[in-house]
Design brief:
Strand content: under 5%
Radius of gyration: 55 Å
Structural class: mainly alpha
Number of strands: 2
Order of helices and strands: EEHHHHHH
Shape: elongated
Helix content: over 70%
Number of domains: 3
Distance between the termini: 171 Å
Length: 220
């Protein structure tokens, strides 16, 4: 059997062509079917992947939080550790007394014990070493006063330095008031001054009368 389609084909070639066409159509149908169902499976796979990423991120955050908590705990323990150890209780008591009585030169009314300033730390180290070497409180305080001034000590003598000018002014005022009260003024002491005032008043009165009389004469 021959079919004329612009060139000659036998029956075997036609059967092969039909078979290839049928297989091709079947492949197209299967491909379309897979394409129709692929987005759902891909979305499920992506969802599982995204969910796994969130879980991994959550685990990382939990581990990071635990690490930060552990670091804060270690720092707190280090801060609470006594950095000024003493072998003798009396020296430790002297050290605590000094750092509570001495003022930080760079702080606003804070003592050395409550200050974390670098200068306060240096002074505390000096006090610690001096107490360990056996220096007295007066020696330590005198050295710090010579270096940082009287501001470093909470001492009543410093208050007297501030109050002394006020006391001098107050004393002068009291002395003046008492001096005035102790010398009473009599009428005889004021007579000359009163006579001058009366004479001045009479002169002004007479001058005013003459001026008024002169104006009246001009009008007439």
């Amino acid at each position: 059997m021959t079919i004329r389609t612009g060139y000659m084909l036998d029956a075997v070639d036609c059967a092969k062509m039909v078979q290839r066409y049928t297989a091709h159509r079947a492949n197209i149908f299967r491909h379309n079917k897979e394409s129709a169902t692929k987005p759902f499976s891909a979305a499920s796979s992506e969802l599982r992947t995204e969910k796994g990423g969130y879980l991994a991120m959550a685990n990382c955050l939990i581990r990071l939080s635990l690490a930060i908590t552990l670091l804060f705990t270690l720092f707190s323990a280090a801060a609470s550790f006594n950095v000024y150890p003493f072998n003798q209780a009396d020296k430790e008591a002297r050290f605590q007394h000094l750092i509570n009585d001495l003022r930080c030169p760079k702080c606003q009314n804070n003592n050395l014990a409550d200050s974390n300033a670098p200068l306060a730390t240096d002074i505390k180290n000096y006090v610690y070493e001096s107490v360990k070497k056996g220096k007295s409180n007066d020696e330590i305080t005198d050295f710090l006063i010579s270096r940082y001034g009287l501001f470093i000590v909470y001492d009543p003598k410093v208050i007297w330095l501030w109050l002394l000018p006020l006391l001098i002014v107050l004393g002068g005022f009291i002395w003046t008031v008492r001096h005035i009260k102790s010398e009473p003024v009599t009428v005889a002491d004021n007579l000359p001054h009163m006579a001058d005032l009366i004479a001045e008043h009479e002169y002004n009165k007479d001058k005013k009368c003459r001026a008024q009389k002169h104006r009246q004469e001009k009008r007439s």
